[in-house]
Structure formats: structure tokens, C-alpha cells
Amino acid sequence: MITVAKELDLPLGIKSINAEGKTRLMGLGDIVFPGLFIAMCYRFELVNCLKEGKNTFTSVYLMVTILGYIAG
What is the DSSP string of 13-24? Predict the structure, then answer.
């Protein structure tokens, strides 16, 4: 899969060079899919808050997913 991504000249990923001079490839799957998951967690909590009729919005799932994304 990496050989195919390196051969294509499309905006499929972000290339970066670390301190040792090695090239790293970060694909859209590393950026887009976690973002969609975080957005779905936010929507899940918002819909549940509106269903229950709460005045305050607590985002436990959202904070946990964002912290997990940052740690990953």
C-alpha cells in the first residue's frame, strides 16, 4: 500500500522528514477518519443531550476521543 501511495502524484498524504533524514508519509486515513469519528462522537452527545432535555451539555465522549487522538 505504501508503494502505491509513493508512486501516485496526488494529494493523498503529507510527507515529512524527521531529524534523522528519513521520510515519513501520513495519509488521509490518519487525518480524515479520526476527524469523522470525533465529529460523530460530538453529534451523539449533542443528540442525547437534546433528547433528555438537559440545559447543560457535557462532552465526556468528545474529550476522551480528542485526548486519544492527541496521544496517538
Answer: EEEEE-TTS-EE
Domain ranges of the chain: 1-27, 31-72
**What number of other Cβ atoms are within 10 A of residue 42's Cβ?**
16
Phi, psi of 27 (to 5 degrees): -85, 175
- Give bridge partners of residue 64 from the DSSP assignment: none
Distances (CA, A) of 71 to 6, 13, 28, 53, 67: 27, 20, 18, 33, 6
Which residues fall within 8 angstroms of residue 38, CB to CB, at 6 or more apart?
62, 65, 66, 69
pTM of the model: 0.62
Residues 34-63 pLDDT 10s: 889 889 988 988 888 888 888 777 788 888
Q: 13 to each of 63, 68, 70, how far by Cα in Å?
A: 26, 21, 19
